[in-house]
Amino acid sequence: MIVNITDYGSGEVNFVEYQVSGLSPEQLNFLDENLEEQTSIVGDDLIIKSYFEDKLYPFASDVAQFRLDDFIAREEIEMNAFLSSFLEDM
Q1: Within 10 Å of residue 64's Cβ, how many Cβ atoms?
Q2: Pairing status of strand 2-9 against strand 45-52
Q3: Is residue 47 scored above 90 in pLDDT?
Q4: What string of H, E and C letters represents the secondary structure of the chain?
Q5: Predicted pLDDT at 68
Q6: In sequence order, what are the residues at sequence separation of 6 or more whose Cβ sits closer than 8 angstroms to the Cβ of residue 21?
Q7: Does position 50 have pLDDT exceeding 90, yes or no?
Q8: pLDDT value at position 49?
Q9: What is the largest CA-CA distance in the chain?
Q10: pLDDT reported for residue 2
């Protein structure tokens, strides 16, 4: 499974959009049907859009802006770990 952040933003709504590839059709459908986040299947990829309150938004700090690549990589790893554990219930 490969997780990439494809979009993010803050302001009126804070969000992070993830593209998840390398899943089987069964895994795609399971995640699409069971995750609480907004999801869609585009081709062979799962798109997940997560919304955050201001205090929980991962890219809000000054440090995040200075080391943005590190924060993006950490978020991708955390989402990969979350999805892997979620798929264990499949």
Answers
A1: 16
A2: unpaired
A3: yes
A4: CEEEEEEEECCCCEEEEEEEECCCHHHHHHHHHHCCCEEEEECCEEEEEEEECHHHCCCCCHHHHHCHHHHHHHHHHHHHHHHHHHHCCC
A5: 86
A6: 1, 2, 4, 44, 45, 46
A7: yes
A8: 97
A9: 40
A10: 97
